[in-house]
Amino acid sequence: MAFFETSDGVTIHYGDLGQGGPLVFVHGWAMSSVVWSFQRELADRRRLIAMDLRGHGQSAPSENVTLEAFANDLIELFTRLDLHDAVLVGWSMGVQVVLQAFNSLRPRLAGLVLAGGTPRFSAAADYPHGLPPVEVKGMGVRLKRDYQKTMGDFFRGMFAEGEPDREQYQRIVHEIVLKGRSPEPVVARKALQVLADADLRPLLSRIDRPVLLIHGRNDTICRPEASSYMAEMLPMARLQMVDGGHAPFMARSAEFNGLIRAFMEEIIGRH
Q: Which residues does the UniProt record annotate as the domain AB hydrolase-1 (predicted)?
């Protein structure tokens, strides 16, 4: 467990485990770094770093909850730890944070893993792969009306029917649910607005690093067509569809970790 203070005075928490090529994780909306608990086994050959976005997990709250602020915190973490040849893993909203930060981090990156993400969360006339704007707005209304219920519904909605199995579900409850911490309601609402407003499509053609896209075929939060779209727009991308929903790194961690290992060995090597 470690902390650093950003240039605008926000205390950011991050975990740092293992040695080897850096593997840096960025969680999704209203979650925290504990969601990556099942990736700890990757520390046998890699250095694993997982940050809590500002206002999430053990990081301090901030009035400035924007995509730019999230990305700047990630950039400052890389600078603070002097990371090079890193593979940066983003999930869900974390994909947008990674894309936003890429240009500044480019010299320090060997590749990207974008899991369950989308360059634009809300659908548009020229982008049918997002959620209908009225659905995104409705989620914001529900957050105000009954925060705990809405968060619970969202967490359950991350998994497809039939997943995870009973044993894995118990592991998720023990390792992630009980150890996790929801953000304050105002932070969750602001971060949802970040998702509603962001459109990272113009940046995709500039991502000149190998990219592994991983997406659940039955993801109803970020639709799998979004990753298919990114696979076409990114110059050096490969798409791996997997069974299940929005959180394969939890529900199907062995398969997810195997994909990460293979990708890192391909672009960096075993050491």
A: 22-250
